[in-house]
Design a protein that fits this description.
14% strand, eight-stranded mixed beta sheet, 33% helix, alpha/beta
Length: 298
């Protein structure tokens, strides 16, 4: 695995990693979710490289081993969601000499939203794209529904946009496996938590501004979907409580023929983290991804 850094938008340093097997058949750019780091995906790097893919990924600004946005490094903050998209573009340009063929894209959660914007702005870069549990609408539920947090962010977030959303400090906490909303695999859950024992990698709750920007995604994506020409497979976790299923269906409907078979592919019973789920959920997701990518490698 090769690791390094590049300069993203507005001079922020972005950490990246890639692995390139000697006989790679194609390249996959992995776009991770909120709070995540390349360190979380060591098993996925291994699995994909064993299948003959070169794998490239970076830590988004404000998280992982990349530069943070605020003096308090625990607050997940972004001034403008477009910065994530610009950073991804800078990373792809940096990595292009290492790509094997026209790259494929695999995105998880918030990374799915970032990639969706990217595909609309850069329609000719990727051969095909898979969105796993994409954050087309974050579940910002407070009282009545998934959009409640968005209304509160609009009402009070202006007073302190770089404060923790939710009125109280929410630094990183390694919660117990029991009852977690992310995965049914205790081994993969503990492995992920172990990777986050490094204080530098840890990230707490989002800021009001991050929440406000995330809320804007749900309104934007149906409008920009018509600009996406890249073939897209949407993988939905059937028991996801982190992002909403309805927004994924709306996005796929808006994509029309660009959405694989014009429907979301559901992994029944799976929790949000399809890429670190228990094998009974993870393997069907990865098999669906491989079959989809194979259509565009012929």
């Amino acid at each position: 695995v090769v690791q390094g850094s590049l300069t993203g938008a507005a001079g922020v340093q972005l950490h990246y990693a890639y692995v390139k097997p000697a006989a790679a058949k194609a390249s996959i750019v992995l776009i991770s979710g909120r709070t995540e780091s390349v360190l979380k995906y060591q098993e996925l790097f291994y699995d994909l490289s064993r299948q003959g893919y070169a794998v490239f990924s970076m830590d988004h600004r404000g998280q992982g081993l990349s530069g943070r946005m605020l003096p308090d490094p625990q607050i997940g903050h972004i001034e403008d969601f477009q910065l994530y998209v610009d950073d991804l573009n800078a990373f792809i340009q940096k990595m292009q000499p290492e790509f094997v063929g026209k790259p494929l894209a695999l995105a998880h959660s918030m990374g799915g939203a970032v990639l969706s914007y990217y595909l609309a702005q850069h329609p000719d870069v990727f051969q095909a794209a898979v969105l796993a549990s994409p954050m087309h609408q974050a579940n910002a539920q407070l009282v009545f529904g998934p959009s409640d947090g968005c209304y509160v962010a609009a009402a009070v977030g202006w007073a302190c946009p770089d404060c923790y959303a939710g009125f109280s400090a929410q630094p990183y906490q390694a919660g117990p496996f029991a009852g977690n909303p992310y995965t049914h695999s205790e081994l993969r859950y503990q492995r992920f938590r172990q990777a986050y024992q490094q204080p530098r990698v840890q990230l707490g709750g989002p800021s009001w501004q991050w929440l406000s920007e995330a809320c804007g995604v749900a309104a934007d994506l149906p409008k920009i979907a018509e600009k996406i020409k890249t073939p897209v497979l949407v993988l939905q976790a059937g028991a996801d409580s982190i992002v909403t299923a309805s927004a994924q269906h709306e996005f796929c409907k808006a994509l029309g023929s660009s959405c694989h078979q014009s429907a979301v592919t559901v992994i029944p019973g799976a929790a949000h983290e399809l890429l670190i789920e228990a094998d009974q959920y993870r393997l069907p997701a990865l098999n669906a991804m491989q079959a989809f990518f194979a259509r565009y490698l012929r």
